[in-house]
Design brief:
homodimer; alpha+beta; five-stranded antiparallel sheet
């Protein structure tokens, strides 16, 4: 039996926590359904070399390792195991480089989105992934391939990470990619590690692509009489070349919940509200106020022709507040973030309502209409019934050409559904890839698949 | 010993070529240094099921398999082996779907870029990867992660492929990804297969992202007195938010060669030519002629402030001809398409000139300045000297944080350099991944690594 006390030789006594010194925060993430778990120890490395030594020790002693950034994940992927250690990146939280010639930032995994946003704003650049929780860490974002509302314009984490320093379970340190947007020089290990939820390697540095920060924008709210109307408008808006930064749909129940919870008054008259079953929220950004105004006028003309009930340009404060409120949790029993081809959203949601209704559950939502990522809140207190409903709702989406998770990941909380829905040949291949990286199976065992 | 004649049972006698029926085209690609090779047989499948049966046969009999699209590759990755078979995708050349709601095309591997461009133009969309050879196939583009001049705005093949139907060496058929831009549902097999040069799986269908086709644009030629001036201008242009579709540099030797070879008169006066050591070629596109004009004026102001000698808006014909001529081969003995961080281009090219000069070689070039992809033509008839020069030129780029190939791939022709330069731990990991996909090692053995 390995003695975790040996790890003090790597990180020092002060950064090895055991027993009651392990605070509750380390035992959970923000998944609604997961059970908190206390690990054998929490280890706080200060460097890539520390991480390499920790992982070599773990492989030598066959001790499971779970990595943790800010703990804001929604699928249980950073919840430690009782027989394992938790590697917490809170001491590796520096922006190592902000390179304004190559438009990249090099960050440690504990850097938060908020921290990076402040630093990039100062030089007129932006890291464009906004998954809705600015305390989230970049390490966690890389592990889950975090997305968010701006994916319709900029893509997700996968599209911004140009390179990694990654530590294998054996302690070998790899450098992948670099300060360039493309290469064909062997297999793309960067892309393979992104979204692997800590099961293949631990990223200790990430080279991130930055973009020019657009400082002129408008938030536009468009009520539609039907969800089909919203769905039909989406390809037309994207196809127009207006390049919305955000293109969200919100159903009327969710809109009513978030506006009342946030005390938001958006200026939509009662008679319009009464006829609106779904809303589009569009953020347009451009290089000058003139262009934003022109684009807004063009959008208004387009959606009006497509059956919108009206068009409201929200005051800056209200627009930001709506976007923020849209991101908040809502007291549901479980959440789903399935992705489907965006044109399939109306059919999918009507199937979801049938499934929900048959089980006496309430399933409501909103989502990234531009990229087909549907966020559903499931209200069903009975765990067995809920599990069945969630399984059916996910299966229905996959049957329409979708995938189980658009951005939250599988973790421990969605893996039973993935196991039931996904092609076993693909899961077997993933297991063989896992073994190629981590022969002893110590990296986050039990996440994604068993 | 397996009898290749058995393959007629899968594709029919007419689509199994052996002996003298194998035309010379099947024996090579467009790599300058590779030796043509005749395979045991050429097999022309008509379907995913055909490909699955062929690969199952190959694995059962341990016969190497090389895939071929249009044969326009530049690294030897589709040159067959004498003891293997060549799978040619010429019969799988249909655009299976053009989905204007989800903005995707589903294509077979033999579809050419030209064919896809015509089809997408008809619906106001564009597949934005233009690697410079429109007869190239999408299957080949996926295998090499093809890039090209528009990568600065749109990214490369990797950023456009949303999903694949891929056949493993065992004959298992996998479907990865889908009609959506993001998912976190296990490892990203789509991204892993892209750029793997036929060594992991054969793609038989690809789901491609389409974009709105911008129909208003201008080509702008900007001479600079030094290459450093060009390099300093690039981050300022990208940072301006003007979003150039193309941002190329051309050195004065290459500019002179391509304009005289193509008989192009660009209207640059002799005195300006005499002082210009490097040129930027910028293509701006937008949604209206007014915006293109505004953007062009802003670009002109910006580059003038940054030391440009002058600014020429090329007539549409000349602009297109320059872009096309820039893509042509040029009688060199070898070509290099290394990528470096874009800000390192001047330092890199000065190191390249030192290496070239010391060996009595001529190395000239141009490149995708926006993304650091440097295309060099190496003139050195002695193979041993040339190999040494190419090795040094590549090592110098990697030492600056670059990668051996930006878009041509490694194939058979650059693998000795990759083996010498790349971290052995990474190559070992890639070999283990290869084994996870292809335990018998039949898929394009000898490409990327031995």
């Amino acid at each position: 039996m390995a003695e975790v006390s040996e790890l003090a030789g790597i990180v020092g006594e002060a950064h090895l926590l055991t027993g009651d010194d392990i605070g509750d925060d380390y035992t959970h993430d923000e998944a609604l359904t997961a059970t908190p778990q206390r690990p054998l120890a929490v280890v706080r490395p200060a460097s890539t070399a520390d991480v390499a030594a920790i992982l070599a020790w773990a492989t030598a002693h066959a001790v499971p390792v779970t990595a943790r950034g800010s703990g804001t994940g929604l699928s249980g992927a950073c919840i430690p195991r009782a027989d394992g250690i938790l590697v917490s990146f809170e001491r590796m939280a520096d922006i190592l480089e902000l390179d304004t010639d190559n438009h990249v930032a090099v960050v440690q995994p504990g850097v938060t989105l908020h921290q990076l946003d402040e630093a990039t704003a100062a030089v007129g650049l932006v890291y464009p992934v906004f998954p809705g929780e600015s305390s989230a860490s970049l390490g966690g974002n890389v592990a889950t391939n975090a997305g968010g509302m701006r994916a319709v314009r900029y893509g997700v984490t996968r599209h911004q990470v140009l390179g990694l320093t990654a530590v294998l379970a054996t302690g070998e340190v790899l450098r992948t990619g670099g300060k360039f947007v493309k290469a064909t020089s062997g297999y793309d290990l960067t892309q393979l590690i992104i979204g692997s939820e800590g099961t293949l390697a631990l990223a200790t540095e990430a080279t991130l692509r930055l973009h020019p920060r657009l400082t002129h924008g408008a938030t536009i709210l468009v009520p539609f009489p039907t969800l089909e109307g919203v769905a039909a408008a989406v390809p037309r808006i994207v196809g127009s070349g207006l390049m919305p930064t955000i293109l969200e749909y919100i159903d009327f129940i969710t809109m009513s919940a978030i506006t009342s919870a946030a005390g938001l008054e958006l200026g939509v008259p009662e008679d319009v509200k009464a006829g609106a079953l779904a809303y589009l929220v569009v953020v347009l950004e451009n290089r000058s106020d003139d262009r934003v105004e022109e684009d807004t006028a063009e959008l208004a003309e387009l959606v009006t022709a497509l059956g919108a009930l009206d068009v409201y340009v929200l005051p800056p404060g209200a627009g930001a507040a709506l976007i923020e409120a849209r991101e908040k949790a809502n007291g549901a029993d479980d959440i789903i973030d399935l992705v489907v081809p965006r044109a399939a959203i109306p059919q999918y949601l009507s199937e979801v309502q049938a499934i929900a209704g048959a089980s006496g559950s309430l399933v409501v939502g909103c989502g990234h209409a531009g990229d087909g990522n549907v966020h559903l809140s499931v209200f069903q207190p009975d765990a067995a019934v809920r599990s069945d409903v969630v399984g059916r709702v996910l299966s229905a989406g996959v049957a329409l050409g979708g995938a189980v998770s658009g951005e939250h990941g599988i973790g421990t909380e969605k893996k039973k559904y993935l196991a039931a829905i996904e092609d076993p040949a693909k899961l077997d291949l993933m297991r063989r890839i896992k073994t190629a990286f981590d022969p002893a199976g110590v990296l986050n065992p039990g996440a994604i698949f068993d």
